[in-house]
């Protein structure tokens, strides 16, 4: 038989993690996307470094941010499962 341990602390930490995933991180990712898009506009910033940013740096960073958003959605689902499991085990 497997022992299951579930404390109020685990429940609290999982809730904190879920709150960050749901409330703060999506907003930060969106803000980074917005700033990167603005910096990519040659009406706001141009020259050799700006062109490198537009052509190389920002496309890579944007892809990373998009992948991060997808990873956060998966993490959100996993943390929700953790909370459900903790509740079923009798914690919090």
Overview of this protein structure:
The chain is an all-alpha fold. The chain has a domain at 45-92. Helices cover 80% and strands 0% of the residues. Helix 1 runs antiparallel to helix 2 (48-89). The radius of gyration is 20 Å and the shape is rod-shaped. This is Pyrophosphorylase.
Keywords:
2 helices, mainly alpha, 0% strand, single chain, 92 residues
Short description:
By secondary structure, the protein is mostly helical.
| Helix-residue proportion | over 70%
Q: Quick one: how many beta strands?
A: 0
- The termini sit apart by 23 Å
- The share of residues in extended strands comes to under 5%
Query: What is the CA-atom radius of gyration, in angstroms?
Result: 20 Å
Structural class: mainly alpha
Oligomer: single chain
Mean pLDDT across every amino acid position: 89
- Compressed to H and E, one letter per element, the order equals HH
Q: Shape, please? A: rod-shaped
- Helix tally equals 2
Low-confidence stretches: none
Biggest sheet: strands, sense, closure? Answer: none
Protein name: Pyrophosphorylase
